[in-house]
Write a structure and sequence with these properties.
Helix content is about 70%, strand content about 0%. It has about 70 residues and is mainly α. It has one domain. Helix 2 runs antiparallel to helix 3. The protein is globular, with a radius of gyration of 13 Å.
């Protein structure tokens, strides 16, 4: 993996910096999947399948993803 810098709203940056390392890792996985989709020329279904397999191999579960998407903090 490589690091990049992306501008976000100040409150997002603050919330990310203050998040637990485990939550930061989950956010990074989610953003990696979304960015891959955004820049790829592959069909969406192929990207989703690859992202799903990568997320599963990194320990992502449907429950973890749901908790990330539903987290109000």
């Amino acid at each position: 993996m490589e690091n990049i810098t992306i501008k976000v709203d100040p409150e997002i940056a603050k919330a990310y910096r203050e998040a637990e390392p485990e939550k930061q890792q989950k956010i990074q996985m989610f953003l990696n999947i979304m960015l891959k989709k955004a820049v790829s020329q592959k069909p969406l279904l192929d990207i989703m399948e690859e992202a799903s397999q990568q997320a599963i191999s990194n320990g992502m579960t449907p429950e973890i993803l749901e908790s990330i998407l539903n987290d109000e903090k």
